[in-house]
Design goal:
Elements (H helix, E strand, L loop, with lengths): L2 E5 L4 H10 L7 E5 L5 H17 L5 E5 L10 E4 L15 H18 L4 E4 L4 H12 L6 E3 L2 H16 L6 E2 L2 E3 L5 E3 L5 E2 L2 E2 L11 H9 L1 H9 L4 H15 L5 E9 L6 E12 L2 E5 L6 H26 L1
Parallel strand pairs: 1-2, 1-4, 2-3, 4-5, 5-6
Antiparallel strand pairs: 7-10, 8-9, 10-11, 12-13, 13-14
Helix pairs in contact: 1-8, 3-4, 3-9, 4-9, 5-6, 5-8
The structure holds NADP nicotinamide-adenine-dinucleotide phosphate.
NADP nicotinamide-adenine-dinucleotide phosphate binds next to helix 1 and helix 3.
Length: 316
């Protein structure tokens, strides 16, 4: 029995993930938890989704709930609750109110679904991953943040379009902060197995422009349509599918570091990990050039500073 719960299910990401997962054969039940004030809306979403699923002969169980006890026995609990980023907001502007929300839900997950894996989406996601780890009391392999996996997909799209090559040929990765201090690992990116720097057409690639496009990708979408939707939802589904199927893919997620990558410790950042049914099987140490390493250290300093500040405020 594979049960997944989504906390914040009335929101854009929450409901999109529910609908995406409802089409997965390997998931038996999806609990769409929302606060009481959104419960009726989520009930409506469930009914609407059932109609769509019937059109594809898919039978899934979707449960609208405003009772946190209903998340019990979940394999994965996804938290998407939070104040969404407005145009002009940085992810760090959201840290204080969202940390309160993550603290409360992490404690509830520890109580009702103590064997689950927590997947955090709420921004600033790297800070929130540390907060969820602290307040759930879970082992770190069971607390995972989505961030750089989405950024990596965005980089993949940009490179595929630039070179006019199928995106499946692009192997690339963004690490560090899911925010201004993200670090695209161009030095280890490959196209069809060929390192980017040896790829014949790479001479007209402007690394600075590329980096700024990925950094602004989320903000650019928000400025045009008000929220990001399909990208994060599919990225989350990717992570969940990889965990449920024990696929052991190497994906980039936010995880609490204790020196595994370049000696960085006591901060959660996006790094490549092997994902399995237990959550993170292990962190994959990654080789960086000098520039990337110094950017990664900048990300660590920035996120650590914010995490420490938030921890202090939560303890007051
Ligand atoms: P949204 O549509 O506004 O939904 C957020 C949900 O949070 C609401 O529907 C509500 O859920 C809950 N919520 C709002 N205020 C709350 C409060 N004071 N206390 C408890 N719950 C509250 O936002 P979204 O677009 O789905 O985005 C959700 C989060 O994901 C945001 O923090 C956003 O920045 C982040 N995000 C992260 C990534 C990433 O890659 N990590 C990508 C995109 C977005 P209920 O009423 O159902 O409880």
């Amino acid at each position: 029995m594979v049960k997944i719960s989504i906390i914040g299910a009335s929101g854009t990401i929450g409901k999109n993930v529910a609908f995406t997962l409802a089409r997965e054969d390997v998931i038996d039940e999806i609990v769409m938890y929302s606060r009481e004030s959104s419960h009726n809306r989520v009930k409506g979403e469930v009914l609407d989704m059932y109609d769509a699923l019937a059109a594809e002969d898919i039978e899934s169980v979707l449960t609208a709930s405003s009772n946190l006890e209903d998340i019990s026995d979940s394999k994965i609990v996804l938290i998407t609750s939070g104040v969404p980023r407005q145009p002009g907001y940085t992810r760090l502007d959201l840290a204080v109110p969202n940390a309160e929300i993550i603290k409360e839900y992490s404690q509830a997950i520890a109580k009702y679904a103590p064997n689950s894996i927590i997947l955090i989406v709420t921004n600033p996601v790297d800070v929130m991953t540390s907060i969820a780890l602290q307040y759930s009391g879970f082992e770190k392999n069971r607390v995972i943040g989505l961030g750089n996996h989405l950024d990596s997909l965005r980089l993949k799209t940009i490179l595929a379009k630039h070179f006019k090559i199928h995106n499946g040929e692009i192997h690339t990765r963004v690490i560090g902060e899911h925010g201004d201090h993200m670090v695209p690992l161009l030095s280890s990116s490959t196209i069809g197995g060929i390192p980017l720097k040896y790829f014949v057409q790479s001479t007209d690639l402007e690394p600075d422009e590329l980096v700024s496009r990925i950094r602004n990708a989320g903000g650019n979408i928000i400025s045009k349509k008000g929220a990001t939707e399909y990208g994060p939802s599919y990225a989350i589904s990717n992570l969940i599918r990889t965990i449920i199927n024990d696929s052991r893919k190497i994906l980039t997620v936010s995880t609490y570091l204790e020196g595994e990558v370049e000696g960085v410790y006591d901060v959660s950042l996006g790094v490549p990990v092997i994902l399995c049914k237990r959550g993170i099987q292990r962190i994959v140490p990654v080789r960086m050039n000098d520039y990337e390493r110094s950017e990664f250290f900048d990300a660590a300093r920035t996120v650590k500073k914010c995490t420490y500040k938030i921890r202090e405020l939560l303890e007051e």
